[in-house]
Specification:
About 55% of the residues lie in helices and about 10% in strands. By secondary structure, the chain is an alpha+beta fold. It has one domain: Winged helix-like DNA-binding domain superfamily/Winged helix DNA-binding domain (Arc Repressor Mutant, subunit A, Orthogonal Bundle), CATH 1.10.10.10. A 3-stranded antiparallel beta sheet has the order 1-3-2. The longest helix has 18 residues. It starts with a helix and ends in a 7-residue tail after the last strand.
């Protein structure tokens, strides 16, 4: 629990700095940590924002979360899947899920 509080404090400090790139990097780091603990997680952008990043301040707009997810996709950490109904979900690229 203490580690989570530290993460919240660190992210709050970054958000107060006004540096968008640092915010996106901090969000990406939090997503990566979440997936290390929950490798089978799969969610929409709003689900990622609500469930995977509960300690990230509301300043983490969907746009910034999406940018962080795109960075993680480029690094091979996250996969983006298009569902038959047109929704997009994100999951760990390192965990192979059965079809």
């Amino acid at each position: 629990m203490a580690a989570r509080s530290t993460a919240k404090l660190r992210l709050t400090t970054v958000y107060d700095s006004g540096d968008d790139e640092a915010e996106v990097d901090a969000i990406a780091t939090e997503i990566e940590h979440y997936l290390e603990k929950h490798p089978r997680s799969k969610d929409s952008l709003e689900g990622v924002r609500s469930w995977w990043l509960p300690c990230v301040p509301l300043a983490a707009t969907s746009f910034k979360v999406e940018r962080a997810l795109e960075r993680l996709i480029q690094r091979g950490v996250v996969s983006k899947e298009l569902l038959p109904d047109g929704r997009v979900v994100y999951c760990s690229a390192r965990f192979k899920q059965s079809p």
